[in-house]
Amino acid sequence: MSDAENGTNGGRPPLRSRAWFDNPANPDMTALYVERYLNFGISLEEIQSGRPIIGIAQTGSDLSPCNRHHLELAKRVREGIRDAGGIALEFGTHPIQETGKRPTAGLDRNLQYLSLVESVYGYPMDGVVFTIGCDKTTPAALMAAATVNIPSIALSVGPMLNGWFKGERTGSGTIVWKAREMLAAGEIDYKGFMELVASSAPSTGWCNTMGTATTMNSLCEALGMSLPGSAAIPAPYRDRQENAYRTGLAIVEMVHADRKPSDVLTRTAFMNAIRVNSAIGGSTNAPIHLNAIARHMGVELNLSDWEDHGAEIPLIVNLQPAGEYLGEDYYRAGGVPAVMGQLFRAGLIDGSALTVNGKTVEENVGTVEVEDPKVIWPLDAPMKAHAGLSVLSGNLFDNAVMKLSVISDEFRERYLSDPADPEAFTGKVVVFDGPEDYHHRIDDPSLGIDERSILIMRGAGPVGYPGGAEVVNMRPPAALIQAGIHALPCLGDGRQSGTSGSPSILNAAPEAAVGGTLALVRTGDRVRIDLGTRKVDLLVDEAELAERRAALAVDYVPESQTPWQEIHRSLVGQFDTGAVLENAVKYQRIAQTKGIPRDSH
Ligand code: FES
Ligand code: MG
């Protein structure tokens, strides 16, 4: 008897798809399940052959241009699955596109997570290829992989080719922040602004800067959830097609080996990823997403781990916004393996962590060298020492993060140069209630914004601006830009785009909408920011704050516009704990702990 006939899988757990397609104990239901999957031409012999059924979670669509190339790549994934002896079933997922989705793509991360869990758990799949790319698609996939815990591998779509304008590299997002300053200063007109920004998107793929997409795809590889060397391959390259094919081969092998996310997503893997995030100059969105994945995997991970394990790691990847280069350069320089190879040989990451291909980090990257030291610098002569994230706290919030790698010399000089107190400065705040308020008033001279002002954005967190808006990086008033001031300290309960080089204090929790002290700040108050002690304090006494709280009339939770906004608001946690749906966290490894769902008829 074959494995399929005797219901075994060579001594390994039986394939879960057999419960749908070949269950001798329940022929009625087997017939019902099988017949409909035959209707597009799969034969009965194939579907009952005992081959692994592999889902391909398709995130590409016209609504998701960053991931759209997956529509092509999936064909090569299918070929890999078939050549390895599996059967592919591709399915669509809820679209997420970072810049196109209003009010936020962050709102959709948890929705895509939920839909992926339902799809992967509720349909006949023995393994799954998650297609990832644009910012939130990677965490949504890894969160779902963790919750369901069947063999899972991620396939990145890859970055766009480098953007160019008049002989200079123009990077996604980063050029927008620069171009809006130029527009505000009258250096370019509207048409010039559009041309400059469009030049940064020359091909299919995700943002070619070290924004949240390159960050999260790099960290997915660092975690061991995608094939080594895969994250940085530009989307249009032939290597990307080949990588799609190899991913298809790999997932079938993973099913036979019963290698699951729980074998890969260990605390060791997360520690490695935190260190890689510092070395690449990764996005401030990384802690939100990695903490979310860890919570769904049941792995202990706190915001303090980012400071404790990542702050001392140097920046070595010279990509915009912290540096000069873009995605194609990153790939040619060796990508994630070249970064991890250096970190491993310096004893900064743990080589014993297992990855999807069944090999350890050491086996995958232990001897990989950098191909271009202008793009990936040597660890012993880095671009910046201590480049990780700093975790700040104080009376204004319990937690917020700041990316140390983007603090410019100009910024340091202006704010952190008092010899008596070199790591701290105090400024008068100007408070904005949401991005509309900011856009409306930023150039209003009556606000009196000067080079020592601190700009505060509130009402932009996971509850207040459902999902959390990337609006904390605010440009200074045009008059200040014309005077040569390119960045003011910004602080808020929202996020900042990973493509922004602004030295902002972000993701402050608790947000104003859930009663955080940020709700009580008034324009003209003074705030002290001490990067030495990691303290941010509102210099207003307790009694005054209590009075303000009692008199607080503003509701920072606007009316929900869709059912999901309302549901999300009622269930979501704060940024410091991953902004997950809190009641989803108890569902862990459900393929093992909950078994197979009941029959549908
Ligand atoms: Fe989709 Fe940047 S907007 S990757
Ligand atoms: Mg973004």
TrEMBL record:
Q: Look up the domain of life of the source.
A: Bacteria
Q: Where is the Dihydroxy-acid/6-phosphogluconate dehydratase C-terminal domain?
A: 374-579
Q: Which GO terms describe its molecular function?
A: lyase activity
Report residue spans for region: Disordered: 1-21
Record flagged with keyword Isomerase: no
Q: What is its EC number?
A: 4.2.1.-
Give the record's keywords alphabetically.
Iron, Iron-sulfur, Lyase, Metal-binding
Domain Dihydroxy-acid/6-phosphogluconate dehydratase N-terminal residue range list: 51-364
User: What InterPro entries does the database record attribute to this sequence?
Assistant: Dihydro-acid_dehy_C, DiOHA_6PGluconate_deHydtase_CS, ILV_EDD_C, ILV_EDD_N, IlvD/EDD_N, Sugar_Degrad_Dehydratases
Kindly indicate whether the keyword Lyase belongs to this entry: yes
* UniProt family annotation: Belongs to the IlvD/Edd family.
PANTHER family, A to Z: HYPOTHETICAL DIHYDROXY-ACID DEHYDRATASE (EUROFUNG)-RELATED, HYPOTHETICAL DIHYDROXYACID DEHYDRATASE (EUROFUNG)-RELATED
Q: What is this protein called?
A: IlvD/Edd family dehydratase
